[in-house]
Amino acid sequence: MKTKTTENLFADRVANVPQSFIREILKVASNPAITSFAGGLPNPAFFPVKELEQCASRVFRQQGMQALQYASTEGYYPLREFISERYRQRYNLDIPPEQILITNGSQQALDLIGKIFINPGDHVLLERPTYLGALQCLSMFQPTFQEVQLNADGIDIGDLEDQLWSNPIKLFYGIPNFQNPTGIRYSADVRQQAVDILSRYNTYVIEDDPYGDIFFDETELPPLYAYMPEKTILLGSFSKTIAPGMRLGWMVANPEIIRKATIMKQASDLHSGNLTQYILHEFLTMYSLDAHIKKIQDTYRFQRDTMISCLKQYFPATVEYTHPQGGMFTWVTLPEEITARELLAKAIEQNIIFVPGDSFYARNPDTQTLRLNYSNVDEATMRKAMNTLGGMVAGLVEA
Amino acid sequence: MKTKTTENLFADRVANVPQSFIREILKVASNPAITSFAGGLPNPAFFPVKELEQCASRVFRQQGMQALQYASTEGYYPLREFISERYRQRYNLDIPPEQILITNGSQQALDLIGKIFINPGDHVLLERPTYLGALQCLSMFQPTFQEVQLNADGIDIGDLEDQLWSNPIKLFYGIPNFQNPTGIRYSADVRQQAVDILSRYNTYVIEDDPYGDIFFDETELPPLYAYMPEKTILLGSFSKTIAPGMRLGWMVANPEIIRKATIMKQASDLHSGNLTQYILHEFLTMYSLDAHIKKIQDTYRFQRDTMISCLKQYFPATVEYTHPQGGMFTWVTLPEEITARELLAKAIEQNIIFVPGDSFYARNPDTQTLRLNYSNVDEATMRKAMNTLGGMVAGLVEA
To answer: What is the ipTM score, two decimals?
Structure first.
């Protein structure tokens, strides 16, 4: 009787949301003896702590009462102006601040998009594999997920066409720059071809771009939004460039979508942190974001180089991996005889953790895959742990 | 064709969410010539700006990297310990920190509750009138709303029984302390009787308590949670006591509900602002929250007294109003000949605004009612504007 009551109590959507295995792994990661390739944490050495302290003091002294009061749902206007101006400078895009909604990290933008677009059963197309947080968030709205294959240069164009043809797809969710979990970036060709196809269907694109600033070469590619602004919702974040603990991201979309997202955000939490928006804006005014990002790029590039050289040096030649040109992750495919969970069980015994790839699939998980994060481990520690891990893989292949 | 496409594009829930008329009124309020009784803004004179500046500096210097990093969905543990300990001190309640989830203001707790409980069509019982933000938030989940009448001492017990009898009610949403919009507090008797009845049904209680700290007399009454902890979800907020711009509130519930709410929160925005949680916790450690609240109570009590004396002195005797013993609002019922919107139209001409009561009803709005906020207007300004408003009412009655 008790059980039955509880079953009826909760909403149907609750059963839909996958729990995060990462969350369980990360609980282990708080042990300082552990070498973690598991998280998606930016390197805290680059949090501009001193600068933010000064900015906070200035905000409290000059605008304390405003920064601590209730504020507009859309977000702090000068911060939206900064984001607008940055799109103009980087991509020559004309996005007025009114088309920018500040969110609690770009994760919240996914919730708002789910709220305004997804009826139960609507088809949503995801990259295979995709960001676990998107899987979790969009699952709340009970869509039917479809998947499109990823190649080294982005989504598979033939498969994209097949998927769009197979069913009416309401939303396509993609991460064209240095994807989580694979580190893959869509090439210029893939972007153009993807947009050519997508524009022929009644499909809206969610372009998630938390890693676009963290590029390692000089070729910055325009967002899908630049090709198809009316039907693209572009998400950005300060979590990878400034600090995730401030929980500030944003959504760019056409005015009708922004209006609806604003109503949903007001109903969901009134507005994003106002104090943090003021402090962040002060930082962006006083310091050069690009100079700050340059330091992150240089370090992550070196860490990426170390990680790739370790994979080459310590792992059997049958192990495959991506060569990320930015972002924080590489994606490893183990030989057929080994699953990533088997490897993880052994790795944990040696105080090494990573995330098995199966969490990143909407269906039919590929159990041979795993994600390695390189942003948060120094060179010596990385070499040592990767050497151990490579030896384990070799051992498992032989066994 | 275009229109049809757009109609099909958005989710059904979008049409359900009422837009906030308050939002429109508050846009006028930014004009400094306006006397506003419209908002629900705490008085910024009590924001502890200097103290928070010091606390922020300390956090940046001592825990900067942790405070700026990604954090657990549940919230900063020491902050949850503080809230736990405060419930023990105030009400002798034993609520472990594990049963407390930090949210982006208590508004977000409503979103999480909607996510875990409400299937479309589920019955949700609201006070009549109720908090507009709850109407908006819960509407996203497409429930069937029912209403229970409010008397001067809380919900009408007979009506509560009728409503619970009429349909299976999944959730009852109430604000027992100094309700928004009416200022009404449930008496000890009403609390006991309400809980006696509610415990006989399969109904969970959302007890929203943003104003409980802002009491004007010495009689603090225990929350409904104290009577019925298994079936009550108690919401709290720092927005009325410290500062709303930090967006920090919390949810107390049984472990199963907290677990499900945590999964939903992770999917929705990963976690609440970490930096602000550290700063707030530093404040709560370094300063006395009760001493701070005492200053707010003293001022709001005086402003409440002024407001009530104005209503008595300047308004026709046929005007009725509540006598709040705490919180930020009084609720006015105009004589039958006048609607609040008529009065507002005239008031705006004289640079005075308030919120017509019709926004606060799930159905069949009472157009004679209006909400007056007294927390944010000084005595002289209040007297002048209330004198004008009273004269208008008298004029409209005679006309």
So the answer is: 0.95
